[in-house]
Amino acid sequence: MVHGGREVKFMRVEEILKSSGGKVLNEFMSKKLVSEYGISVPDGFVIEDGKGFPDEVDFPAVLKILDEKVLHKSDVGGVMTNISSREELVKGISTMRSRFPGSRLLVERMVKGGLELIIGTKKDSTFGTVIMLGMGGIYAELYADVSLRTVPLDQRTARDMIQETSVRRFISGFRGVRISEKTITDALLAISRLAMELADRIDSMDINPLIVSDQGAFAADVKIVLH
């Protein structure tokens, strides 16, 4: 028999997956999905075209275009950061709507500080689902400092992945930045579970950056491509 809580979780997961009108799950729903597996995400809300936003907004905030067709938002001017007031947000919304007419927008609390990592998964015709860990942010593709494994992961394998990348230097502290090995390990195991349980639904996923600090780990951007 399926445990009640687990069954409810999979009902929510199914609703999230069905929200996509195509092969790409939008960022807001992608974050809802990873949060179902224990990955923290910034508080946020969606602004529909032509509509306003709630009275309560956590500043500083980030404003993004929410469009499944735009995977690299920063490359096309689809991201504004460090918004510190309602006036700035109103101005930013106006600018975004002029750049991307008809698109929905995403407003989130800005996560500041911490180390930027990338965790990703990809279906491979030979090896099955492969999971990746490395240094994240805008330079992730440049440095290609990553470790790869097939899922499922266990604790030891997750720790090995950390040790195989520059991420390990921050476990004991480097240039004033120190992060918890357990926090990263827990995130890897959570994404491993997601990739295993939804292997027939998800083709690839990138969390970049996953911002890790002494306050935990937050998925600041998530991209999910469906089968």
Task: Describe this structure in a few short sentences.
The protein is α+β, with helices and mostly antiparallel strands and 227 residues long. It has helices at 4-18, 27-35, 86-99, 140-143, 155-163, 181-197, and strands at residues 24-25, 44-47, 61-66, 79-83, 104-109, 115-124, 128-135, 146-150, 202-213, 216-219, 222-226.
Q: What does it look like?
A:
The chain has 6 helices and 11 strands. It is an alpha+beta fold and 227 residues long. The chain has 2 domains: 66 residues, ATP-grasp fold, A domain (Dna Ligase, domain 1, 2-Layer Sandwich), CATH 3.30.1490.20; 112 residues, D-amino Acid Aminotransferase, Chain A, domain 1 (2-Layer Sandwich), CATH 3.30.470. The strands form 2 sheets. Strands 1, 6, 7, 8, 9, 10 and 11 form a 7-stranded antiparallel sheet that branches. The protein has a 4-stranded antiparallel sheet with strand order 2-5-3-4, with helices on one face.
Could you report the average pLDDT, rounded to the nearest whole number?
92
The major sheet is characterized as: 7 strands, antiparallel
What is the CATH domain class of the largest domain?
Answer: Alpha Beta
Number of helices: 6
Q: Into how many domains do the coordinates divide?
A: 2
Distance between the termini: 28 Å
* Helical proportion, percent range: 25-40%
Tell me the radius of gyration: 18 Å
Regions with little confidence, pLDDT below 50 for 5+ residues = none
Quickly give the structural class: alpha+beta
Oligomer category = single chain
Order of helices and strands: HEHEEEHEEEHEHHEEE
CATH topology assignment of the largest domain: D-amino Acid Aminotransferase, Chain A, domain 1
CATH arch. level architecture of the largest domain: 2-Layer Sandwich
Shape: globular
Count of individual beta strands: 11
According to CATH, the homologous superfamily of the largest domain is: ATP-grasp fold, B domain
Strand content: 25-35%
